[in-house]
Design a protein that fits this description.
Blueprint: E1 6-9, H1 14-22, E2 27-31, E3 39-45, E4 50-63, H2 69-74, H3 80-88, E5 99-109, H4 111-125
Parallel strand pairs: 1-3
Antiparallel strand pairs: 2-5, 3-4, 4-5
Protein backbone atom coordinates (compact mmCIF):
# COMPACT_ATOMS: atom_id res chain seq x y z
CA UNK A 1 0.00 0.00 0.00
CA UNK A 2 1.32 3.42 -0.91
CA UNK A 3 1.92 5.88 1.92
CA UNK A 4 -0.17 9.07 1.89
CA UNK A 5 1.42 12.50 1.59
CA UNK A 6 1.60 13.99 5.07
CA UNK A 7 1.21 17.67 5.88
CA UNK A 8 2.59 19.72 8.77
CA UNK A 9 0.97 23.07 9.38
CA UNK A 10 3.42 25.94 9.76
CA UNK A 11 2.23 29.13 11.44
CA UNK A 12 2.06 32.28 9.30
CA UNK A 13 5.31 33.48 10.86
CA UNK A 14 7.83 34.96 8.39
CA UNK A 15 10.93 33.78 10.28
CA UNK A 16 9.59 30.27 10.76
CA UNK A 17 8.73 29.95 7.07
CA UNK A 18 12.04 31.48 5.95
CA UNK A 19 13.98 29.05 8.16
CA UNK A 20 12.07 26.10 6.67
CA UNK A 21 12.64 27.33 3.10
CA UNK A 22 16.37 27.81 3.60
CA UNK A 23 16.96 24.61 5.55
CA UNK A 24 17.89 26.48 8.72
CA UNK A 25 15.08 24.67 10.56
CA UNK A 26 14.80 20.93 9.96
CA UNK A 27 12.82 19.93 13.05
CA UNK A 28 9.54 20.58 14.82
CA UNK A 29 8.16 19.67 18.22
CA UNK A 30 4.41 19.00 18.23
CA UNK A 31 2.06 18.39 21.14
CA UNK A 32 0.66 14.87 21.25
CA UNK A 33 1.90 11.61 19.82
CA UNK A 34 1.17 11.96 16.12
CA UNK A 35 1.18 9.30 13.43
CA UNK A 36 3.86 10.74 11.14
CA UNK A 37 6.23 8.40 9.34
CA UNK A 38 9.39 8.67 7.28
CA UNK A 39 8.70 9.87 3.76
CA UNK A 40 7.43 12.88 1.86
CA UNK A 41 5.66 15.65 3.73
CA UNK A 42 4.29 19.05 2.80
CA UNK A 43 5.04 21.92 5.17
CA UNK A 44 2.19 24.32 4.55
CA UNK A 45 0.00 27.08 5.94
CA UNK A 46 -3.77 27.13 5.56
CA UNK A 47 -4.00 30.82 6.55
CA UNK A 48 -1.41 32.28 4.16
CA UNK A 49 -0.62 30.51 0.86
CA UNK A 50 2.74 28.82 1.50
CA UNK A 51 4.08 25.29 0.92
CA UNK A 52 7.43 23.48 0.88
CA UNK A 53 8.06 19.77 0.24
CA UNK A 54 10.40 17.93 2.66
CA UNK A 55 11.33 14.36 3.48
CA UNK A 56 10.66 13.24 7.06
CA UNK A 57 13.75 11.40 8.30
CA UNK A 58 12.91 10.74 11.95
CA UNK A 59 9.87 10.67 14.24
CA UNK A 60 10.40 10.40 18.00
CA UNK A 61 7.78 10.16 20.74
CA UNK A 62 8.47 11.43 24.26
CA UNK A 63 7.25 13.99 26.80
CA UNK A 64 8.14 17.68 26.73
CA UNK A 65 10.50 17.08 29.65
CA UNK A 66 12.38 14.46 27.61
CA UNK A 67 13.07 16.71 24.62
CA UNK A 68 16.85 16.96 24.34
CA UNK A 69 18.83 20.17 24.40
CA UNK A 70 19.90 19.56 20.81
CA UNK A 71 16.25 19.15 19.76
CA UNK A 72 14.85 22.26 21.45
CA UNK A 73 17.82 24.37 20.25
CA UNK A 74 17.42 23.07 16.67
CA UNK A 75 13.77 24.10 16.93
CA UNK A 76 14.83 27.66 17.81
CA UNK A 77 14.48 27.62 21.61
CA UNK A 78 17.31 28.76 23.88
CA UNK A 79 16.18 26.84 26.96
CA UNK A 80 13.60 24.34 28.13
CA UNK A 81 11.58 27.17 29.67
CA UNK A 82 11.62 29.03 26.36
CA UNK A 83 10.46 25.85 24.60
CA UNK A 84 7.62 25.40 27.09
CA UNK A 85 6.49 29.03 26.75
CA UNK A 86 6.85 28.94 22.95
CA UNK A 87 4.72 25.81 22.63
CA UNK A 88 2.09 27.24 24.98
CA UNK A 89 1.35 29.84 22.27
CA UNK A 90 -0.02 27.01 20.13
CA UNK A 91 -1.06 24.55 22.86
CA UNK A 92 -2.38 26.55 25.87
CA UNK A 93 -2.51 23.54 28.22
CA UNK A 94 1.03 22.41 27.37
CA UNK A 95 3.07 21.18 30.39
CA UNK A 96 6.31 19.25 31.04
CA UNK A 97 4.42 15.95 31.07
CA UNK A 98 2.66 16.64 27.77
CA UNK A 99 3.33 13.98 25.15
CA UNK A 100 5.17 15.33 22.11
CA UNK A 101 6.26 14.18 18.69
CA UNK A 102 9.67 15.37 17.51
CA UNK A 103 9.77 15.36 13.71
CA UNK A 104 12.96 15.86 11.68
CA UNK A 105 13.18 16.39 7.93
CA UNK A 106 15.66 17.11 5.18
CA UNK A 107 15.81 18.36 1.60
CA UNK A 108 13.34 21.28 1.52
CA UNK A 109 12.30 21.88 -2.08
CA UNK A 110 9.77 23.54 -4.29
CA UNK A 111 9.14 26.91 -5.92
CA UNK A 112 9.53 28.90 -2.68
CA UNK A 113 12.84 27.19 -1.90
CA UNK A 114 14.09 27.95 -5.43
CA UNK A 115 13.01 31.58 -5.03
CA UNK A 116 14.83 31.89 -1.67
CA UNK A 117 18.01 30.37 -3.18
CA UNK A 118 17.86 32.77 -6.14
CA UNK A 119 17.49 35.72 -3.76
CA UNK A 120 20.52 34.63 -1.71
CA UNK A 121 22.58 34.09 -4.88
CA UNK A 122 21.59 37.52 -6.23
CA UNK A 123 22.52 39.25 -2.96
CA UNK A 124 25.83 37.37 -2.83
CA UNK A 125 26.75 38.59 -6.34
CA UNK A 126 25.92 42.24 -5.65
Amino acid sequence: MKQPLYALLIAPDEKMRHDAETGKQLITIREGHRDYRKGLCMLCCHLVPWAVMVEITEVRYCTAGEVTEEEYRANGHGSTEEMLNGLKKYYPHFIWDSPVTVIRWKNPRGALVDKAKAGRKRRKNE
